[in-house]
Design a protein that fits this description.
The chain is mainly beta and 176 residues long. It is built from 1 helix and 11 strands; from the N terminus they run ββββββαβββββ. It is elongated. The chain starts with a strand and ends with a strand.
């Protein structure tokens, strides 16, 4: 099968994250605004072209004050760095419908190579005749790798925020 263009149905997709807080729990959040350009053969994703863009100002941790702080220069600095960009550079099949997708992540003016585990969840036609495909992905980045180093020491030891940020995606794509 040949590669086809796919768009992301944002109303049936999500990009979520979690980070350690106070060394005892995790805070979760989501990004509401994102888009992707995907050219892929769903039977063989190893040849796919994937580029994902996340609008960092769309962050939502269910706390308006925290979200405002995350948007400012202590963290994302969305005025100067409004997007996180992922561009796939290598895709390796690791199992039935499972892939390691490596690519360049650009965040806060820094580009680093990261790998995400991606599962092709399958495809079907919706009631209106559109071909759809589902994908799940998970990975982890170190925020310090991208110059996101804001933190505070705790009097009991440790720090307020962990360095590892777990990222998970649930994407529903629609064939163009």
């Amino acid at each position: 099968m040949a590669k086809s263009a796919w768009g992301i149905d944002a109303s049936h997709s999500s990009i979520d994250f979690s980070i350690r807080h106070l060394m005892i729990s995790k805070v979760k959040g989501t990004f509401h605004t994102f888009e992707a350009n995907v050219n892929a053969d769903t039977d063989d994703l190893t040849t796919a072209d994937i580029e994902l863009s996340i609008d960092l100002s769309s962050i939502d941790t269910r706390n308006a004050d925290r979200d405002a702080h995350l948007r400012n220069a202590d963290f994302f600095d969305v005025e100067n760095h409004p997007k996180l960009i992922f561009k796939a550079t290598n895709i390796v099949k690791t199992g039935n419908g499972e892939y390691d997708v490596t690519g360049d992540v650009t965040l806060h003016g820094v580009t680093k190579q990261e790998t995400f585990e991606v599962t092709y969840e399958g495809a079907s036609k919706d009631p209106w005749g559109n071909q759809r495909a589902g994908f799940s992905a998970k990975g982890k980045i170190k925020r310090s790798d991208y110059g996101l180093t804001y933190n505070a020491a705790l009097e009991t030891g440790g720090v307020m925020l962990g360095d590892d940020v777990a990222i998970s995606l649930e994407l529903e794509a629609v064939k163009a």
